[in-house]
Amino acid sequence: MTSEPRPSDFAQPAAQPDSVAAALNRLNDPEKRAQAKEALAVGQAMFGRGRYREAIDAFKLARSLSNPMSASGGEIQMWLVNAYVAAGDDESGLALCRKLILHPDLDTKQQSKRLLYILEAPQLEMKPEWVTQIPDLSELDDEKGHKAYVQTPKKPRRRKPKPEPEPLDLSQVNTADNQFVWIALIAIMLTLGGLFWLS
């Protein structure tokens, strides 16, 4: 079984001078983009397993390795918002989501608006009549509980034999010639003759 990469397995970005050229070189480096994609995949895997703190670390690393103003940077930050909220850090998630409303990527902007609308929605009050109480079955005796839920075996049904149909009395069948049969035969002959003539 191979171990999954963790956010700490990736190299942290080296501190560079804050010049525009250095920033562009860092953002356009294919190796950094590949590391960002891999960190994003690790973060998504951790998020899917419910390991939100590790997912946050992976998403932060992916964000630092990518251009935060690009579409992929926006996607990484949306994942980071979801991880913050899932980990219980609502304030950090809300703050980042508010920043993403001004993101240059249209999809990121729309998703952040939708998510912010959901996150800022007021909590609903739970009325007692809306909640179904489930009884605690742990207090039942094992013997009583076992007997109460055992199905009784069903007796196999006996199939009744189907009665044989009564034999048909041929003396009661009308065997007289029927005029309809002759009319039908004549109509068939005329149709066939007409088809033969036209062909």
TrEMBL record:
Keyword field contains Ion transport = no
Entry annotated with the keyword Ribonucleoprotein = no
Q: Which residues cross the membrane?
A: 180-198
User: Which keywords appear in this protein's UniProt record, sorted alphabetically?
Assistant: Membrane, Transmembrane, Transmembrane helix
Q: Return the annotated region ranges for Disordered.
A: 142-170
Going by the entry's taxonomy, the superkingdom of the source organism is recorded as Bacteria
- UniProt cross-references to InterPro entries, sorted A to Z: TPR-like_helical_dom_sf
Protein name in the entry: Tetratricopeptide repeat
